[in-house]
Amino acid sequence: MEELLDILKDMKPGVQFENEANLIDDGILDSLDVMNLSVILNDEYDIEITPLDIIPENFKSIESIYALITRLQED
Amino acid sequence: MSYTSFSYLLFFLGITYVLYTLFPKKYKYIVLLCMSYLFYIVSSSWLIVFIVLTTFIIYFSAIWIDKINSIFIDVKKNLNRDEKKNLKNKLLWQKKAVVCVMLFFCLGALIFLKYYNLFSEILNFVIFQHIHLELPYLKLLLPLGISFYTLQAISYVIDVYRGKYKADYCLPRVALYLVFFPTIVEGPIGRYDEYAYQLYEGHSFHYENLTFGCQLILWGLFKKLVIADRANLFVNVVFKSPQDYAGFAVIFSIIFYTIQIYTEFSGCMDIVRGSAQIFSVHLPQNFKQPFFSKSINEFWQRWHMTLGTWLRDYVFYSVSLSQPFKKFNQLVKNHCNGYLSKLLPATTALFFVWICNGLWHGASIKYIVYGMYYYVLMVLGMFLEPVFIKVMKIFHIHKETQYFRVFQIIRTCILVNIGMLIFRAKDLTTAWNMFLSCFRDFSLQPLSSYGLRLSDLLMIVCGVVIVFIVGVLKEKGVSIRETIAKRNIVLRWTVYFAALFIVIILGAYGRGYDAVSFIYAQF
């Protein structure tokens, strides 16, 4: 989780990701950010995020992003 | 059959609604399906063949993909991890082959019918004229709504391919999803899981949906007949012979065209969504007060939203998460600094989105430039962001202040108006000349020389003010229809009749007015 937090903070400095529960609805992450983040996560965690995984529920908070990574690593 | 015609509003929609109400719940979908095909035949006669073929192609493609998926589910329990991976890869290629066949026929039909002449012109110019060959110009007929229903068809099969939902074995439901008469002309480009089931299941009489639907239709008619068709009078005069005008005349004609296209397209969407709502079918929103946007990016999240989300889901993510693109990302990462490696992949993927957006709007170089115009604005915005932040710091400008927001909205409106000039002008040279003519000769001629009377101008201004107030209320989360519905019966019906008479009396039709067909219906 710490590593993921570092990636997010590096991507969007100044955002308190620990306290945000609606990253998509609140407009903190837009489609370009999600795409950039997916590319980084694919690299860092050796997973394959597909367009199907790109739904607001998977990117709405740091917990949901972490859950997505864990699920894809198990697949 | 135009959505604003009496034949549609009084007869077609009326008869369909009566039949829908009379039929038993189980068979109500038959009314919608038959009337949708009737609407298509009346509007596009034998070209109905294309949409019927598309229906069969996507129906069988999705089922085929589903069968491949079930093979994997049946077999995978008895396999180890590596065998599972191998089988998954093998089946993935089979699924990809099915998608390619579907794209070949569905997208192929669209590309051939809509873009053959554009591509043959380009190929003749670039290659064939040098070897004394020439691709012939073909007079091709475009089936009604092909640009809209093809995107819907593709989204259905790709969603099944991606495993978002299973293939639908009910052919009438798939057929109705493509041909539903309110959406066939101008969209919205809906998704299968959003409204196919709503269309198929029968809905009993619902007073609120009926009244809310009628109100939405009335609001759409107001925007189209009172504002858009009236603005068209002025727009037509200037754009027909732009060389005769300069200064304010050109500036106002561009602004009026922006008003026209917004009130017309969003008005049409209100008629479409209202028509669907009377059958208790809720269609996705296509406009969300786009002229309150603070940036071009935000504008396209509020303007023709269903096209934007379609391009995002099926072009942007497909490109940016593809294997070749991953290699490109790696290459950029290895050879560029952090700033470039962050921006290059996103801006490259965006290029495909905007070239598709431009081409989707029309088969001409002008529309490609229209797409590229927005692409360049977005890319510049992304690359220059650090500069903007620095400038704002130096001048102590705070992003959240009211005056800066107003500045951002005005800036976005100006940029959008320039885009609309490219969109409306006959060709790129005309657009450029008109743009230059905005900065010279600011003398004004009498209104009559622009094809407008003072009363027309006043009505446009009043109409725009009403649309603006409604937009502000919507931005604040006020539901106008619900607010009216809560009032007592006298006030409520006074509002309804007043709105109806305003449209009947003030609508731009009759002597001196030409009925204007919907701009987006030509796509």
N-to-C order of helices and strands of chain A: HHHH
* Low-pLDDT segments of chain A: none
Mean pLDDT of chain B: 89
For the record, the CATH architecture of chain A stands as Orthogonal Bundle
Looking at the structure, what is the overall shape of chain A? globular
Largest interface: A-B, 14 and 20 residues
Rg result of chain B? 25 Å
Describe the structure.
The complex is a heterodimer of chains A (75) and B (523). By secondary structure, chain A is mainly α. Chain A has a single domain, classed as Orthogonal Bundle (Non-ribosomal Peptide Synthetase Peptidyl Carrier Protein, Chain A), CATH 1.10.1200.10. Helix content of chain A is 56%, strand content 0%. Chain A has four helices and no strands. Chain A has helices spanning 2-11, 31-45, 56-59, 62-74. Chain A is globular and about 30 Å long. Chain B is an all-alpha fold and 523 residues long. Among the domains of chain B are: 6-203, no CATH class; 206-283 and 446-523, no CATH class. In chain B, helix 2 crosses helix 6, helix 3 (48-76) runs parallel beside helix 5 (146-162) and helix 13 runs antiparallel to helix 14. The A-B interface holds A 30-32, 35-36, 38-39, 42-43, 49-52, 54 and B 162-164, 297, 312-314, 316-318, 320-321, 326, 329, 342, 345-346, 349-350, 382.
